[in-house]
Amino acid sequence: MKSVRLYQNTTLKVGAQIDLDESAAHHLIKVLRFPEGQNITLFNGDGLDYQVRVVSIKKICVVEVLSCEKNNRESSLNLTLAQGIAKGEKMDFLIQKAIELGVNRIVPVQAERCVVRLNGTKLIKRTEHWQKIANHACEQSGRSVIVKVAPAKSLSEVLSTTEGNGYVLHHRAEKGLLTMKAPSQATILIGPEGGLSSHEIDEAISSGFQPLLLGSRILRTETASLAAIANMQLLWGS
């Protein structure tokens, strides 16, 4: 039977029985048609995997926590992706794949060339949507932490709150990852469609971000983000 991992935002304790939340219960019972008596894995973001047995699938789905163990899938590189907000489903795709590649935090950035402009209720709803995608990506990729998707920030907010080891990706940079010292923590700043403006790049560099070149070709934002993350993980992390 297919291995099932589900996120539950609740305290999990060996020997306890808990009711799955409505979304998880619906997925388990209605979508997967999962039977009573079988085991699944739960996680709540504390870095542990909890083995549980499904004891009831009636009106409420009840599970019993059997055991727990540490999940060792996290990278040694603590990596934040500061991503210029991409339009349509590109941002959903970027969040999903960045988490599969081991990113620890995602900060959507309202850059000058962003087509999408979010504020008020629309921003709250979009952030909640992105967080749900992040949670599902953690489930799918076998991680037992929850990657936080921050509310969208301006570039100046990102630059003022980044504490060292910032990298700004642009095709006019001269140095690649192989020439840089490996950090244990880093933030990678990447523009939306159309990239960051010259002013934004200069502002990032003035704030201490190192200009980073991935190669001689100009990449789309979704390609650039995932290529940068994958290369950083390969060289500096897992």
For this entry, give a set of tags.
single chain, 238 residues, alpha/beta, Ribosomal Protein L25, Chain P, Alpha/beta knot, seven-stranded parallel sheet, five-stranded mixed sheet, 6 helices, 12 strands
3D structure, described in words:
- The protein is α/β, with parallel strands linked by helices and 238 residues long.
- The protein has 2 domains: 5-70, Ribosomal Protein L25, Chain P, CATH 2.40.240; 78-236, SPOUT methyltransferase, trefoil knot domain (Alpha/beta knot), CATH 3.40.1280.10.
- 32% of the residues lie in helices and 26% in strands.
- It has 6 helices and 12 strands.
- The chain has helices spanning 22-31, 90-100, 120-141, 155-161, 198-206, 221-236; strands at 5-7, 17-19, 39-43, 48-57, 61-70, 78-84, 105-110, 148-149, 153-154, 166-169, 185-190, 210-212.
- The strands form 2 sheets. Strands 6, 7, 8, 9, 10, 11 and 12 form a 7-stranded parallel sheet that branches. It has a 5-stranded mixed sheet with strand order 1-3-4-5-2.
- Strand 4 and strand 5 (61-70) form a beta hairpin.
- Helix 2 (90-100) runs parallel beside helix 3 and helix 2 packs parallel to helix 6.
- The longest helix has 22 residues, at 120-141.
- The chain is elongated and about 60 Å long.
- The protein starts with a strand and ends with a helix.
